[in-house]
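cron nightly-structures :: item 1 of 1
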Amino acid sequence: MKPQHVELIVTIAELGSLGAAAARMNKTQPAITKALKAAETELGTPIFFRASYGVVPTREGQLIVDRCRKIFGDIKKLREEVAQIQGDYVGTIDIIVSPLVALKVVPAVLRRFQHRFPNVKIGITGGHAPAAFSPLRRGEADFVLGPSPSPSDLPGLQATQLFSTPVSILTGSQSRYLSVTDPLDLRDGRWIMIGPKERRPVYYEIFERRGVRPPEPFARSDSVLSILSMLEGTDLLCSFPSLPIPELRAKWDIGLVPIEETLPTVSIAITSAKDRILTPAAFAFSDLVLEHCREWN
């Protein structure tokens, strides 16, 4: 299949319209239709079908789209790598970061990176394990900076530990839990959680040690701002990485629950796909992250 067919399939899938794909690629719609038909004939299966709201992949077509996205990403990275080897440092690095890394690592690393590579763009998306690792495997991201992959998430990935953080329990600054030291007194509290439903809450362990069923979080959010906003002025509870808490308490009306048991620490890593060939700029970004974390620790 021709490289231009790969780009065509990716563009149609992204825009959901042959007309929009033609406009994006500066071609006529008949030319786009003819090229798509040629790709479908070569592969021996329809890739898209027409719906009332546009075109969508068939079952086989979705597999083709997913593969084409990876190939198209590799072609794009190949062009960037060749340009960078020749001294033209352009392109894009896509990273997915956890809230802790966004607060404590990204700002300093970006300043240093942009000083060295002013023409390389950085795409930053917030995300949490384990969902954050899927874009790595699809070739849609270069790195995930956040909690280390669990053994079940690790196949196909490689991770380098950056640092570990203890975990504390946050609540509102006037909460009735501010003097609680026994975790069992938190059983009836209303808990919120950072991250997706697939992620196991860190606070479960303090209850399971006592043989008590842990309370389920009634709300989850990928946004630190949402979590902090919910905590302010309430009795809600949330397990939270301890490292950024001093800065956050200076800006938000939140407080610490002084329980006498230690919560598990969380290991933070920089993770990439094993089969991902990084550009020179991406290698430099990784080195800056590692250097910054060594200095910081």
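cron nightly-structures :: done
The longest helix spans residues 59-85.
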